[in-house]
Write a structure and sequence with these properties.
Elements (H helix, E strand, L loop, with lengths): L1 H41 L9 H11 L23 H8 L7 E4 L7 H10 L5 E5 L6 H9 L5 E7 L17 E6 L6 E2 L8 E6 L1 H4 E2 L7 E7 L1 H8 L7 E6 L12 E2 L5 E5 L8 H4 L1 E2 L5 E5 L12 H10 L5 E6 L10 H7 L5 E6 L11
Parallel strand pairs: 1-2, 2-3, 3-4, 4-6, 5-7, 6-8, 8-9, 9-11, 10-12, 11-13, 13-14, 14-15
Protein name: F-box domain-containing protein
């Protein structure tokens, strides 16, 4: 019995002898680990040392260039910046410019609450608004936006006639207006908008809207008739850029007045394939014109001299074109009159090209 106990004591001593260096090694490893951890804890990551003002500017670069509007929600919305960490959330919520461009689309239900939050965050910043409200949200949205009228700088309204009440009073900051209105929309007269310089009017807006035309330097009109366009252009002598797209059917027996546009430098004139009418181009006088993009059926006729309407326009305007682009329909492979004929007829124009169905958009405002 005693010999057995003595044997166990020797075994314990042997175990202790084996454990002691291991514990010493573990203690050494723990000490080294603590040293490395202390270095890590003391390290400041570069992003954490960036001043809040710089982070705010980086956030602004994440968004589409103002006045383009980001999504209200999703991965490309400024809202996502509030979900990263508490510091970024605080910076995002205290950067008014992040929330100043708002796109109200009827594709999202209940978004009026999001819009209200954004308007609260943007402070007194100039606003860019695209309004396509769902029917059940229009009145609530109108009341909310009406209080922001003095801050609206860029405004796009699609449909929703009730929202047009925004234009009933002065808009001191408004610079750009885009209206795409339904048939039957009420008449609108915007008198006090001293900074308004560019406008896009589509469909019914071409007939029901009255703007301070003399202020405008760029104007796009879509789906109206030559008579409607001439009536507007006669009141807009300061236009530098203009884009016109004719509607498919209108009374082509109307005699158009002569329209003088002394400052006009670029003109887009587009017409549906079924419209063969040169009266629009020949009614214009634009001595400063340098760029002309025009549907073929607006400048050509049958006969030995198909480009007579264009020649008449250039001669009457005494303009010196730098660029002529002939637009032909999508269902054609090339212009009806070969481009080479045009290049021979107008050899003094440095750049003559053809384009299939030139897109009608607001690029004229960037030229």
């Amino acid at each position: 019995m005693l010999s057995s106990l003595e044997a166990d004591r020797r075994i314990i001593l042997d175990f202790n002898a084996q454990i002691e260096p291991i514990e010493l090694h573990l203690a050494e490893l723990r000490s080294k680990r603590a040293t490395v951890q202390a270095r890590l804890d003391a390290y400041k990551y570069p992003v954490s040392k960036i001043p809040n003002e710089i982070i705010s500017e980086i956030f602004l670069q994440f968004l589409p260039t103002y006045p383009l509007c980001p999504e209200l929600g999703g991965r490309y919305s400024p809202t996502i910046l509030t979900h990263i960490c508490s510091q970024w959330r605080q910076i995002a919520l205290s950067t008014p410019q992040l929330w100043r461009a708002i796109n109200s689309s009827d594709s999202a239900a209940g978004e009026i609450h999001t819009i209200k939050a954004w308007l609260g965050r943007c402070g007194s910043c100039p606003l860019s608004l695209e309004i396509r409200p769902a029917e059940n949200e229009r009145k609530g949205l109108l009341g909310m936006l009406d209080s922001q009228r003095a801050h609206i700088e860029h405004l796009k309204i699609v449909g929703a006639p009730i929202v047009l009440a925004l234009l009933d009073s002065a808009m001191p900051r408004l610079r750009h207006l885009h209206l795409d209105l339904w048939a039957g929309s009420r008449s609108i007269k915007l008198d006090i908008a001293p900074l308004l310089r560019t406008a896009v009017l589509m469909d019914a807006a071409c007939t029901v809207v009255q703007l301070p035309w003399g202020q405008l330097t760029a104007l796009a009109l879509r789906f109206g008739s030559p008579k409607e366009y001439c009536s507007i252009l006669q009141q807009a002598p300061n236009l530098v850029h203009c884009a016109l797209e004719l509607k498919a059917y209108y009374n082509d027996e109307v005699i158009l007045p002569e329209v003088n546009l002394p400052l006009l430098r670029s003109l887009v004139l587009k017409s549906p394939p079924q419209n063969v009418d040169t009266k629009m181009i020949t009614s214009l006088v634009a001595p400063a014109l340098r760029i002309l993009k025009v549907s073929e059926q607006c400048i050509t006729t049958l006969g030995q001299n198909p480009f007579r309407p264009l020649s008449s326009f250039i001669s009457k305007s005494t303009c010196e074109l730098d660029e002529l682009c002939i637009i032909y329909p999508y269902n054609q492979k090339a212009p009806y009159v070969p481009l080479e004929h045009c290049q021979l007829e107008f050899s003094s124009i440095p750049s003559i090209s053809a384009n299939c169905g030139h897109h009608f958009d607001e690029n004229i405002f960037d030229e």
